[in-house]
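User: Fold this; tokens only.

Assistant: Input:
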Amino acid sequence: MQEAKNADTLTRYGHGTPDDWIERNIFSRFTWQGVGLMVGADLILFGFAGLAIWGIQMLWIPVHAAGIINGIGHWWGYRNYDSPDASNNIVPWGIWIGGEELHNNHHTYPTSAKFSTKWHEFDIGWVYIRGLQALGLAKVLRVAPKPRVAEPKRSIDLETLQAVISNRYDLLAKYARSLKVAHRDELQKLRLSADEHARFARLQRIWRKGDVSQLATHEQHSLSDMMKRSGVIKTMVEMRTELLATWERSSASREQMLTHLQDWIHRAEASGIHALQEAALRMRSYRHAPA
């Protein structure tokens, strides 16, 4: 209630939301009457039992949004994309919480009206939206882009750069899978004790999905040890960090970003490492989806 009077908060989080007559004269003026209206509706519909139903409704969002989505969803689950956070998809079927179970998908494409991105995932919220759209009560502005690929381009130009940036999460997801295979093959080649093998295997599950600089100190030491033993892993770790820098340097011009990408692709192709060559080929094949 206090924060609702904070102009800075309203400006920051209210951006893009309606500011019409209803907003100004009803929602902003009568901040608690909506809750009271819900109590009245529940009592009319369900009698005295409506109070219990109202209590459940009041707990629904805090428990599910704060406890399950922002709690479990940032601790446990699976990831389709290397989004720059700890978000996970809790389960592939978003039914209980309107599709928010697909939290990693949502964080990767926060403006998408559809949270499911893989063939086996289901977002019931998307069913609601499509139903409202069919009735003329909703308009879908944006959904997650599907990767578009074609014959690899010989020249790496600004269009290639734009296509790579647009498909960066798809690229990183496939790169992560390649890292997993390369890491497994390298562990088999190295002469490791059972303890070292288990430690390195656990480490790769962590660093191949996130920023190396975010690793704990002891994990960074283990990664340095691993990189000393394997030139392939060392190259792939360093090249992944450099790849992220292609679109994360906000101060770089498009021409600087293009030069960086061209250099990365040429070095990847000359590395002799299949996973890097595969990533370079995919970059040449991406096409930017029309708006």
